What does this fold into?
Amino acid sequence: MSNRDGSAYTQAGGHPWSASTTIEINSHQGTLAVTPEGDTRNITVDLPAGFVGDPSAAPRCREAQLADTLRCPNSTQVGITRVTAGFIVQDAAAPVYSMEPPPGVPATFAFTVAGVVVHLNARVRSDGDYGLAIDVRDIPQTLPLVRTSLTFWGVPADSSHDDQRGYNNGGQTCIDSNAFGIPCSNSAGVPRKAFLTNPMTCTPPGVGLETRLTVEEWLNPGVTRTARFFSHLPAPDEATQQGPEGCDRVPFEASLSATPTSARAGAPTGYVFELKTPQSSNPDGLANAHLKKTVVRLPEGVRVSPSAAAGLEACSPGQIGLRSLAAPACPAGSKIGTLQIDTPLLDEPMHGAIHLARQRDNPFGTLLALYLVARGPGVLLKLPGSVVADPVTGQLTATFDDNPQLPFDRLLLRFADGPRATLTNPASCGVYTTSSELASWTGKTVTSNSSFTISRDGSGAPCPPPGFAPRFAAGLANPVAGSSSTFSLSFGREDDDQTLRDISVDMPRGLVGVIAASTLCHDAAAAIGACGEESRIGSTTTEAGPGPNPFALPGRVYITGPYKGAPYGLSIVVPAVAGPFDLGTVVVRAAIHVDRMTAQLRVVSDPLPSILEGIPLQVRTVEVRIDKAGFMVAPSSCRVQQVAAMIGALEGASSAVSSRFQVGNCRALTYAPRISLRIGARGRTAARRTTPLRVVLTMPRGRQTNNKSVTVTLPRNVNSRLSALTGACTREQFEARDCGPHSVVGSAFAVTPLLRDPLRGNVHIVRTPGNRLPELWVALRGEVQIDLIGRVRIVPGSLQLKTTFGEIPDVAVSRFQLDFIPGRRGAIGLVSGICAKRVRRRMIADLAMVGQNGARITRSQRMRVAGCGRGAARTRRKGRVGAGARAKARGRR
It folds into this structure.
């Protein structure tokens, strides 16, 4: 690059007076002339990256015109050349013209030597640094090239080139005319425009920019020879390398704007990004610096939309083929937008696509990355960019670095819109600002901000305060009393609701699970989502993302052991695989509490995740299905109940919701409980003695309604011992597990098909406010804790002891046994001895039992008497045959 006086032109971004390249082919002196050692067929000159030419700086000559006349208009001349071609041409000079390029070529130049037209086709090195290359193809063997010197003019229409422009009146080139002292002056007749622009990467003193030469001969196709040289000072200092300098003087103007295609709050939407770097063809100034790096920070609230995942694909490194001339083979599903580039290097804009890169398998190893692909004549751009999502807020930052050193006026990126758009607007109304840092190859950086306004409807309507009115539904697939059926529960929100956080569910009484039929998952495995199939009891579907088409994520539900103080828990495992993204496994734990009085289940979830690796989940709907065969058992009561829940929002709101619940066909359930009573023991049958009492309730197998209440009225000669009542504890002490041993009057156990092991515990006497007599509280303990309360009263007139267990949980119990102890803490005493035959005949208890379906049974049951000797034993055996002879039963729904 040189000035008019021949001195070096080194200003970065400036327009040199001329740029010259000389190529010499290995040759030898023949008899008549210098002869090349091989016939050159193809030549490629790779110019330094950043050294560019504007093809529009001069008009273009038509190919037919040059072929017919071997000349083109003066306005199309952009330089000169001198060629030595063996003994045929000795140092011939010719004008170099800008030509109309053939398809697929951004710019073409041509000259004629000895009647031969030589073309120079420009292209962009799409497989490398995107510098310019000049290709000369199929040089005729009739033109054995020895030496060529090519000079391009920095401003072709400048009058300083008039003396070398075109031909003189005698048909001689002005180049030769000047050489012989015959002046020539031909004006271009068009405005001055800059054609050549120096690179904008300054080098240290003594360091030039590399130009590479590749030559292929006719006789050795496919075999190339290469050479390289560096930009240098003019003679006599040509050994001194020299590169661009003065980068601090190069201007840099750039701006970036971001605009959503829809301004509606919270909606999935397309976004349009417009990056401008204005270019100037002013030949007397410096060009605008080339863009090297772009960092774009979207406003907080503009996030990746999970709804885009359906049908979304990603482009692999092999498919994109960075630094390859091959067209990308990215799948159609990876295209998430389009782009357009306006550049002075081409007559028409470049067009292309935005592709999503494969997760982690991209040049940056990031979760999110993009490929920009644009095509133009002789140009294929493939630019990778990283996208980082803030792990806490989801704010997006995109970075494109080491961009090509090529000029462009505008880059327009259009991310696809619609329900499957990859981006979503902020959920709140307001003004949002995108900030950008734009850095040039000269080292200068500018900051560009642009803002847009979000409203409720996208047309300016204000946003109301965020509401929270979640949807909720729950129930059995087959609501038949006492049967097993799938239980489903779903809850969700609308786009403008606050974000779902957690849920606690109070199940209907009697709707329980058969724990004995499943293997409880251990806590360590449950915490990481590694429960086995033997613990699986159901499935789940989570829908995430804004708009009408949220993305559905399937998952599984496992039953676990104790969790957060509850006897059981759930491990809800959802593989977060959405389209081409795998965000790992999401595990949400839940505690299953069992009410000690009613056995009612209360399920309390941990918080739902709101963001994964910077991707806000925007959970819309959660559906849980407990569908393991035989696990869920419906109540045996047909009364109207509800599934009640409290749903919490991440922003702090909460909502109480419920779903009506009722089973049917209770009348089809049988009710056939059996109760046996045994009193007495050796040495415990005399009057005024404490005595043991055993009460056993059994239920036959089959579809039975469960017990709702059981009342036992003991015979007159059985009473309570006041001395035992003095040891009663308070309700508060019982609930705090602080009752002393003096309150224990017996023991109990219950066998249920729902659990593997029986529940066992003590029977306490407990004083409660408002009751004259203490109550019997049965503390059953095991996998779960259940408290049964027996209310004791004395029947007026007969003074009989009457105990009613009136709120028995609606769960299946195959055997329940209650044993009262004798002794100092014994609560059961005898008014008179019980071994006499006439007394034993009067040892009859009155029973009243009510099923959960309303069926009622009343019965007078003879008690077995123990501890009276052999005769008494025979009487007891005989008494068992007639037991229950006076029973009667009636039922209702």
Q: What stands out?
A: Helices lie at 63-69, 174-179, 317-320, 523-527, 722-725, 731-735, 837-841, 870-882. The domain at 471-666 is CATH 2.60.40.2230 (Immunoglobulin-like). Residues 870-882 form the longest helix (13 residues). The CA atoms of residues 716 and 798 lie 7 Å apart.
